[in-house]
Amino acid sequence: MQNGKERRTMPRYMYHIHAAGVTSRDQAGKQHPNDGRAVAYGQLIADELAEEYEYRGAIVDVLSPSGRLIARLVSSRAFPPWLQSTPPAQRALH
Questions:
Q1: How many CA atoms lie within 13 A of 5 on its CB side?
Q2: Where are the domains of the chain?
Q3: How many whole angstroms separate alpha carbon 46 and alpha carbon 72?
Q4: CA 62 to mean position of chain CA atoms
Q5: Is the dihedral of CA 31, 37, 39, 45 positive or negative?
Q6: Per-residue pLDDT tens for 11-63?
Q7: What is the largest CA-CA distance in the chain?
Q8: Could you tell me the pTM of the whole model?
Q9: End-to-end CA, the chain
Q10: Of the candidates 17, 23, 16, which has an alpha carbon nearest to the alpha carbon of residue 67?
Q11: Strand 30-31 vs strand 22-24: parallel, antiparallel, or unpaired?
Q12: Helix (H, G, I), strand (E, B), or coil: what is residue 90?
């Protein structure tokens, strides 16, 4: 107890990443005060992954402390699915 008040811990959210045909399951998670902050952090993860070409199609699942999927995110830099399989130099222009 601190100053007569019980100290509350923030809920821990998990971030599973699906990229390059592999799923990486978060074992540690990260604490956030609410779902909105957790989703914003998940978007940051997706955008940072997309800085590498091969991870532009990565999907980040944000799970609540109870294990419920609250968001499935892709990078704002993600390619449309029909462009993900070919490197930029090999895309047709017509």
A1: 4
A2: 12-77
A3: 10
A4: 6
A5: negative
A6: 999 999 999 889 999 999 999 999 999 999 999 999 999 888 888 889 999 99
A7: 70
A8: 0.74
A9: 67
A10: 16
A11: unpaired
A12: helix
Question: In the numeric block, which tokens belong to residue 40?
Answer: 């914003």
Residue burial 61-81, b: 16+ Cβ < 10 Å; e: rest: bbbeeeeeeebebbbeebbee
Assigned token pair, 14:
């998990």
Instruction: Using alpha carbons, select from 22, 2, 3, 24 the residue that is nearest to residue 14.
Output: 24
Instruction: DSSP letter for 67, please.
Output: S
17 in Cβ contact with 71 (< 8 Å): no
Q: How far is CA 88 from CA 7, 52, 91, in A?
A: 52, 13, 6
26 with 45: CB under 8 angstroms? Answer: no
